[in-house]
Design goal:
globular, Lipocalin, alpha+beta, 129 residues, 7 strands, single chain, 2 helices
């Protein structure tokens, strides 16, 4: 089990270093990037890497402070749903420096709300943007 987790973390780290992040959204608190080179299609479903880069340190009650988070998300292009497959939070910007926490269990599917950031990412992943 530990080997599997280590291999997943190493894959995330190595893919972060080679990522071709494209800015897709920016506001006063954070910038969101997508890596179109990570788009993988299987039927109506698509996966894509997404990076949230924060202007200030994020410190939720249950975790260590972080400056960025990298997500592997899955999108159902036909049903208009999305979910996070895995997530790593990093102490530095642009998914660099130390991983302060990670999640590797896929979350539940959620409907993509019109006008939301999730809808923008869904459109990019599904080729509708």
């Amino acid at each position: 089990m530990h080997k599997a987790i280590l291999m997943m973390l190493l894959a995330v780290l190595s893919s972060s270093a080679m990522a071709e992040w494209s800015e897709v959204f920016r506001d006063e608190g954070f910038t969101v990037y997508a890596d179109p080179t990570t788009i993988r299609k299987a039927g109506d479903r698509v996966t894509m890497a997404v990076l949230y880069d924060y202007k200030s340190v994020q410190s939720p009650n249950s975790s260590k402070p972080y400056r960025s988070s990298r997500k592997q998300s899955e999108y159902d292009c036909k049903k208009g749903q999305s979910r996070i497959l895995s997530l790593t939070a990093h102490s530095g910007n642009m998914a660099e420096v130390d991983i302060v926490f990670s999640l590797s269990k896929p979350e539940e599917w959620e409907p993509v709300r019109p006008g939301s950031l999730a809808e923008l990412m869904w459109k990019i992943a599904c080729g509708k943007a």
